[in-house]
Design goal:
The complex is a heterodimer of chains A (about 575) and B (about 600). The mean pLDDT of chain A is about 85. Chain A has a 6-stranded mixed sheet, sandwiched between helices. Chain A is of the alpha/beta class and about 575 residues long. Chain A has 21 helices and 12 strands. With about 600 residues, chain B is an alpha/beta fold. Among the domains of chain B are: about 160 residues, ABC transporter type 1, transmembrane domain (ABC transporter transmembrane region fold, Up-down Bundle), CATH 1.20.1560; about 240 residues, P-loop containing nucleotide triphosphate hydrolases (Rossmann fold). Chain B has 19 helices and 10 strands. Chain B has a 6-stranded mixed sheet with strand order 6-7-8-3-9-10, sandwiched between helices. The N terminus and C terminus of chain B are likely disordered. Classes of the chains: A alpha/beta (about 575), B alpha/beta (about 600). The interface between A and B is large, with 161 and 155 residues.
Chain lengths: ~575, ~600
Amino acid sequence: MLKLARYLKEYSGMLIMAVALLFVQAITDLALPDYMSDIINDGVAAGNIGKIAQIGIKMLGITLLGAVCSILVGYLAAKIAAGVSRKLRYDVFDKVQHFSNKEFDEYSTASLITRTTNDITQIQMVLIMIVRLVFYAPIMAVGGVTRALSKSTSMSWIIALAMIVLFGLIICIFSITMPKMKLVQKLVDRLNLVSRENLEGMLVIRAFNTQQFEEQRFDKANSDLTATNLFVNRMMVLMMPAMMLIMNLLQVTIVWVGAHEVTSFNLDVGDMMAYMQYAMQIIMAFLMMSMMFIMIPRASVSADRINEVLTTQNSIVDKETPKCFPSDFIPTVEFRDVSFKYPGSGEYSLRHISFTAKPGQTTAFIGSTGSGKTTVVSLVPRFYEATEGEILISGVNINDVSQKELRDKLGYVQQKSILFSGTIDSNLHYANDDATAEDIDRAAEIAQASEFISSKPDGYDTAIAQGGGNVSGGQKQRLAIARALVKNAPINIFDDSFSALDVKTDAKLRKAIKEKLADTTTLLVAQRISTVLDAEQIVVLDNGRMVGCGTHDELMKTCEIYQDIARSQLSEEELAK
Amino acid sequence: MSPKPDFTPHADTGKAKNFKTTMLALARYMKPYYIHISVVMIFAVGSTIFSIIGPKMLGKVTTKLYEGLIAWYAQTGLLTDFKYISNMIIGLIILYIVSGLFSYIQSYVMSGVTMKVTYKFRKDISEKMHRLPLNYYDTRTHGEILSRITNDIDTLSQTLNQSITQIITSVTMLIGVFVMMCSISFLMAFVALLVVPLSMALMMAVIKRSQQYFKGQQIGLGKINGHVEEMYGGHNIVQAFNREEDSVRQFGEINDELYNSAWKSQFMSGMMMPIMTFVSNLGYVIICILGGNLAVHNVVSVGDIQAFIQYMRSFTMPITQIANISNTLQSTAAAAERVFEFLSEEEESPETDTIPVPNPVYGNVEFKNVYFGYTPDKIIIHNFSVSVKSGQKIAIVGPTGAGKSTIIKALMRFYELSSGQILIDGADTAKLKRSDVRAMFGMVLQDTWLYHASILDNIRYGNFDKTQEEVIKAAKAAHCDEFIRALPNGYDTEMNEDADNISQGQKQLLTIARVILADPKILILDEATSSVDTRTEKQIQKAMDALTEGRTSFVIAHRLSTIRDADVILVLKDGDIMEQGSHDELLKKNGFYADLYNSQFSEGEE
């Protein structure tokens, strides 16, 4: 929590102002019972109506002052909290945008999203509470105690006793319900799990006619949750009546003891009445403080999570004086004995990979799941850095140039096509704001996307929902390919990005790439053997090792794993073709 | 806990479209608890009344004390009537204890009612889920339905508890306090009453304005979340296109927007407290002045002023609550409306006049002039007829999105036909019980579904009377016995939350074992295309081949070997069945199938 205190620095003026205002507010709140006591003692007892009016007007003024202070504090608190969270949010987002995949893997995307959104909202809420209460409650408590003592010292034990009983009660209730509350969370998760399973398995459930079984499973989770919830609820609702009872009894006790004090002339009646109100104010102040003790640990969890992100060292940073690619850039990609292990993993995912992808050629990667195909191509844009060995583009080690310069040379389509909300046009322009209509058309043409784009009533202006949910998988993939092509980069990377296309479109697309992008280097990851058949160079991967490199015909003769893959997908007849 | 990206953001509690109807429906839903609620009401009123009498009695003590003092000064009486005071005090203690007890009983009963209603709502929703036709789920995300079970029900249970109790206590409190005030002094009560419209008006004004900003804040938060999700989700794309700065700039704009509505809404809602305190203090001052004056003229006593001050304090709380209650009720209604909407969705057509299942089942399947569409106005399968003999293999082929699974869903009666018939061994499936139709089928889908339970239970899913031996036999037939035994707890290994403690291919093997155990006459298979390593793929292939032996099978085929072996191939395009026949027949026809088949290798030949 304190680690984020630096964010409050620019608001220190406002904070000081808020504290000063709170001080005034506390004084006004504390002064009221005093004046009331004066009205009774000096006004009513003395029958002095003028005095009553005089004190009354003072009270009015003070009330107004208190309200104004309190509203101003609210203003300052809102400004500070919203301001701090705006800055925090911006910094976290900015930081995360420059994370490499290593950091993303470590945190997980979902966790980073929560840290950027919910955690910061949490901080904002607590900050407001802090500004309003952290200072106010102690001032009130101290002020209340002083005032109460000035009226009567002999009754302090009553307040002390009430406080002990009250806190005892709160601690009791919380220590009983806390473990149960955690259980409730677990049971809620369980209920959600069953519901989600039910929804996802709807077809299977109906196919097996197990609706009743599922209903019972849900009912079990539901009953467990209800029973535990009921217990927690019934404990928690004990709080209010018990607290009210304690406060009421406190007043009764003050009146009882006070009566004796009054009779022995130690106390005025008006003072006794004021005392009762001080007692309430003191207890309220302590309740507020105890609330802070519940709020702050919760917020500090959020603060820690945010701070963790902010202090993370980016694992991939540009060199201080990055090199540039030569002006006669040649798009060759060369892997020189590259080995790689994922951060935190003990085992190598890639070992001793060496090959050269030449301009005008397609270099394809094939192998079973987990063989390391995607890993190879994600080293090229430096999403990860090679652990050993080096990768050269146009003869320059890619670690020596800036990430921006490197990525400017690459067109990249990832396995899972991701479109951003907007329109088809805005998605295609994502690669290059200045792309002309011809550039866009040409890219869509190559990506085999023109046909379906023009068949949409709004054409290029067709809206794309968040995550691209409103276009089919195959269309999404083709748009992602078109987007990469708009960039007109000398090197294109397709990471298994033809998988949602039917064989026919796949073939057309590869043909178009071959014809229209004759000078570029193509790196292509594929599952289907038909996709790689005509590549100039096929790299066969198995368990992170290169087990073959060559053309289809060569590999069919030499590489056993390649033959295996081919045989599982093609029949003898087609293999013979 | 990481967030569930599946959930649709539900920040907009929104307003109910039809407040009155929904509330009436809710009242009807709670009918079994009317007695409980009456008890709640009686105890709530009782508790409130008792707590209202308190200050007046306490005031009497003070007055007695004060009068004693005056009398003593005037030397006309006793200093203090301790007997009277102690009686009163004992009375007060009893009163407060009873009031507290009543209040607890009221809350105790009420939380029972809310929990039971919540339980019933959830139960109804879960049962409803299984009775809805499948096409209901086509247009809705899981998140939407889950949100009914979680968010909406939560809102309902919270607000229900709050609003019912608060309405009762607040109203009782207001009336009771006012009566007590009147009993002290009509004039003072009248003045105090003037505070009510003032504070009400102020509250309403603040609430109205703050809601506007709150909405702004919610929209802002929604936008921020959207942007963050999108950019983090597409991180590689952002970086590959060098768009980090652009994304940060965009974020900055949304962030500024959020800041503006955030501080305003926080400020506005923060004003509520000070304003209420001010109004309450204003009342306090007026009562002090007025009461002081009246006390001087001996119209009221000192204790009355003390009591009145306490009444003033307890006057403002119910006002705040009542001002807020319309909001609470609004969100109750909005949540309840969504739940009722779900509960009243049209269910699968009822099953009456069903015919018995053919016995034994041979597995002859006939499609007779079948027309089908997901919506009646958009028929996608036109006049489809085919006759399949027991034991034959039917391959369904076509490009992605051509609607291959539609046929299967119609076959298993997940969807009703628009017209025409599907006959199994001569029995019209539309006349059979749905459960009977489905019991004849075994299904292996690419989307393997396993649930949070042991592997044993997952294999015998739907056939819970099968013994462990039978399960193991089926597992062996499906080539999964070996890997199951290699797992830490063998057949008792629990599937974890995401079922990712075994691989995708292994999952598929388990679902094959499940079908082998069920031993159905007709099979539906979806061949795996990807994400399985070569070795497992071979095993799946073997297991599927063994499975189809002697059974009628419908295969969504990707493998050419499967396709060519099929007795009938159904070729789909854009949902409709374009062509049907054997491999050779279709090739001869030189139509869409021939085109599809040849295109795969055209490149290689060029």
